[in-house]
Amino acid sequence: MKTIQTIGAVALLCTLGIQAAEMPTAAPKTYPEGEVGRLVKLGEAIMNETDTHPLTKDLVGDKLQCKSCHLKGADGKPGTAKGIGTFIGTATAFPAYSKREKSVQTLQDRINNCFMRSMNGKRPIIDSEASVAMAAYVTWLSEGLPMKMNPKMPCGPYNSQRWAKNSKKFAKIQKKATHKNYLSGKKLYEARCASCHGRNGEGMGTFPPLWGKSADGKWLAYNTGAGMSKLNKGAAWVQSNMPLGQGGTLKDQEAADIMLYVDAQPRADFDLAKGFLPKCEMGYYNSKVLKEHHSVRSNFKALGLDVDKIRGDKVIP
Ligand code: HEC
Ligand code: HEC
């Protein structure tokens, strides 16, 4: 039997909209036997080393790993932390409907969407060992939990409510933003985030980058099609998970302003046509929406904001 740990911060998690006491906070104690176990372990390794792992490095267009956003829990495994973005319970929700793709997505489809967007890369082929291994790892993290396919969003039971509620909350706050909020976000970023992520979002050592390009001109972080690049979704994730080890400590206005600042910095445009591998094999993308383009500017416009007015300059193309 899987141990279900009771979480200390019950009150905090309840305000975030989940049944805290019901949520396991660790991977199962043992790996499955044989080949399945080998694939689960391979998937775990890929999640930790996505941009350098031999099976995935050519598919990644930034300096991130899955565990950069699907954080490690106390058991040291990617995606077991209890904040927004946990993989615990995720596999129970699939196949699940996605409004973005207007189609029913499998877990492998969902993983591929993070490759195209959060990893600024290309979609792994569904039949490849890397793709199966990552899905096997995520599925293992739901062992013993009841299946319940999600007809509304491609999201596990411990994430969907929290995303929905908190993204709405932050959109409401950020729609009213002015240049003052940008300046306040910059100040807060420098005080609370820059010590790990760098003053220019470039990352430091094992602390991942948040925006911009490397000296050799390569994009460092998630692109403008990623959940994190939507300032309201980004704020929901950051409030739940950052600063590292202090998730839940930023006030609503603080998290809103910090991500207004972070997501107003330069990052790669998202063009759906670039996410296919190889480009001609459209069949690999399970979506009814085949045209999609996002930029920093359009992500601000989605909340009724003009990025030039917010920044107070004309740096963003
Ligand atoms: C830059 C941050 C970031 C990185 C890196 C990232 N993801 Fe995600 N991932 C997200 C966000 C944000 C969501 C949910 C929001 C949304 O639906 O847009 C998500 C959702 C998911 C989900 C659905 C989980 C659930 O229960 O809601 C899966 C599965 C997933 N990602 C897999 C991966 C894998 C595998 C990788 C590495 C190849 C990866 N992600 C890398 C940010 C990231
Ligand atoms: C103590 C160091 C530390 C501080 C302070 C910190 N972070 Fe992080 N942050 C991390 C680490 C480490 C990760 C990735 C986790 C991993 O790889 O295990 C991360 C991941 C992230 C990510 C997702 C990955 C990416 O690069 O896009 C975002 C966004 C982020 N942090 C934003 C912030 C913001 C905003 C603040 C300030 C409120 C902040 N962080 C403060 C260490 C820190």
Notable traits:
globular; 317 residues; single chain; Cytochrome Bc1 Complex, Chain D, domain 2; disordered N terminus; 2 domains; two-stranded antiparallel sheet
What does this structure look like?
The chain is mostly helical and 317 residues long. The chain has two domains: 18-158, Orthogonal Bundle (Cytochrome Bc1 Complex, Chain D, domain 2); 162-311, Cytochrome c-like domain (Cytochrome Bc1 Complex, Chain D, domain 2). Helix content is 35%, strand content 3%. It has helices at 10-15, 34-49, 107-116, 129-140, 160-174, 179-192, 194-197, 231-241, 252-262, 296-301, 307-311; strands spanning 96-98, 103-105, 270-271, 293-294. Strand 1 (96-98) and strand 2 (103-105) form a beta hairpin. Helix 3 packs across helix 4. The chain is globular, with a radius of gyration of 19 Å. It starts with 9 loop residues before the first helix and ends in a 6-residue tail after the last helix. One heme C is lined by residues 64, 67-69, 71-72, 192-193, 195-197, 207-210, 221-222, 228, 238, 242-244, 258, 262.
